[in-house]
């Protein structure tokens, strides 16, 4: 039968859509892609010819059951182009290079000595430069960057990162000026959420909430594969859900936010104050070193040593340290309460808990689940599963690279870096 659908001039949206379908279907013949996108066979064939020439897709001959001659299926070409992603957390940069299917081919980390915006930017530029030198083949001329705090994805700036005390950090413009690469900025936990949704614990999940717990807390709200940004990119800032209007002051200027009770910084501060009040713990040696650094005024043996961290508390809790477990349980109580509110409001199929602390061994996820169960509406709680993220340390960098992969046609057209 003659195909009566109109021939549409291939535009970028249709071309990226064809790439997305080719990446998602098991057996993407030209006909299957046309059906899926309601485009004519001619339009799809024109697009496919273009994409084959750019090295974005490849053809494979397969034997289709019931047919005499072999059929041709399309697949993303995983041999030519690489996408670059970077993410900053726990005082270090993680870099990855992936193929077009999101498989990590190379990775690298770079420790950043100071938690200042200048050190953050300088190390990003030098780190990217040296990492990209090690990646063979064609690199799409862009970089996805997972950054802390509230991020304006359109302008490429960190508006504010309250847990670090940063304001207005022009990341995108700096990267573009120094490296000549388009920078696609995204909040680091939103990036991790995207990666878990595509390749990890959230794969195939319709309504997903990813919660990253580190020095700060934020979430990715993902529906049908689409990340919700909100009107001005603050969708998912659950660290500032207010738990108590008379609570301690938060970095955002308000009082009693989830952040001041449940972030890694909050866990570390609680452990330090319990130790100072005379309680014993395996964390005492660390706390003593911290006190010594303070007394030495920054020039002693432990100068520059970070505060007692959430990581240290979670590690001690996993070893059974009673004081650390108490701090973790207190954080989990507030996290569970915050998550119960999210369950009631968004009614997700799944909540994935990640971030540097969420991925650590120990009882955090189980404690959070118990708390959420006791506060959420049973109807909504019965529909949700809560589990730990499945992707490792490079999850945020992989999610940032996804932002480049989503526009691979545009970047491939510009040529390689
Ligand atoms: Zn706050």
Can you give me a brief rundown of this structure?
With 417 residues, this protein is α/β, with parallel strands linked by helices.
Structural account:
With 417 residues, this protein is α/β, with parallel strands linked by helices. The chain folds into 3 domains: 12-76, Winged helix-like DNA-binding domain superfamily/Winged helix DNA-binding domain (Arc Repressor Mutant, subunit A); 81-195 and 395-414, ATPase, nucleotide binding domain (Nucleotidyltransferase, domain 5), CATH 3.30.420.40; 204-272 and 305-388, ATPase, nucleotide binding domain (Nucleotidyltransferase, domain 5). Helix content is 42%, strand content 22%. The protein is built from 16 helices and 15 strands. The strands form 4 sheets. Strands 5-4-3-6-10 form a 5-stranded mixed sheet. Zinc ion (ZN) binds at residues 240, 250, 252, 254, 257, 259.
């Amino acid at each position: 039968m003659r195909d009566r659908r109109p021939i549409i001039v291939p535009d970028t949206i249709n071309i990226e859509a064809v790439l997305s379908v080719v990446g998602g279907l098991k057996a993407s013949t030209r006909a299957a892609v046309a059906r899926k996108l309601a485009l004519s066979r001619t339009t799809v064939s024109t697009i496919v010819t273009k994409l084959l020439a750019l090295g974005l897709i490849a053809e494979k001959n397969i034997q289709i059951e019931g047919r005499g001659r072999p059929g041709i299926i399309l697949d993303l070409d995983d041999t030519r182009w690489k996408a670059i992603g970077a993410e900053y957390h726990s005082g270090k940069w993680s870099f990855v290079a992936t193929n077009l299917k999101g498989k990590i081919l190379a990775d690298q980390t770079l420790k950043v000595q100071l938690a200042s915006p200048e050190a953050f930017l300088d190390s990003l530029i030098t780190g990217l430069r040296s990492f990209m030198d090690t990646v063979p083949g064609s690199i799409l001329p862009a970089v996805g960057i997972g950054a802390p705090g509230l991020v304006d994805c359109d302008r490429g700036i960190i508006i504010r990162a309250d847990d670090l005390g940063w304001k207005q950090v022009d990341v995108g413009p700096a990267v573009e000026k120094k490296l000549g690469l388009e920078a696609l900025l995204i909040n680091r936990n939103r990036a991790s959420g995207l990666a878990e949704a595509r390749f990890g614990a959230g794969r195939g999940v319709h309504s997903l909430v990813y919660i990253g717990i580190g020095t700060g807390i934020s979430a990715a709200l993902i529906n049908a594969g689409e990340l919700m940004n909100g009107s001005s990119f603050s969708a998912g800032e659950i660290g500032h859900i207010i738990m108590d209007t008379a609570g301690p002051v938060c970095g955002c200027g308000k009082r009693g936010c989830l952040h001041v009770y449940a972030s890694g910084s909050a866990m570390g501060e609680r452990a330090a104050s319990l130790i100072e009040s005379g309680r014993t713990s395996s964390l005492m040696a660390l706390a003593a070193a911290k006190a010594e650094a303070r007394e030495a005024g920054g020039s002693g043996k432990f100068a520059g040593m970070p505060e007692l961290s959430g990581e240290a508390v979670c590690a001690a809790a996993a070893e059974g340290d009673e004081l650390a477990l108490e701090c973790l349980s207190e954080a989990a109580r507030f996290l569970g309460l915050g998550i119960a509110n999210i369950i009631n409001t968004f009614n997700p199929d799944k909540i994935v808990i990640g971030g540097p602390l969420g991925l650590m061994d120990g009882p955090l996820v189980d404690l959070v689940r118990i708390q959420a169960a006791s506060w959420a509406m049973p109807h909504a709680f019965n529909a949700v599963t809560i589990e730990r993220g499945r992707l490792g340390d490079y999850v945020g960098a992989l999610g940032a690279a996804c932002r480049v992969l989503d526009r691979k046609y545009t970047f491939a057209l510009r040529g390689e870096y």
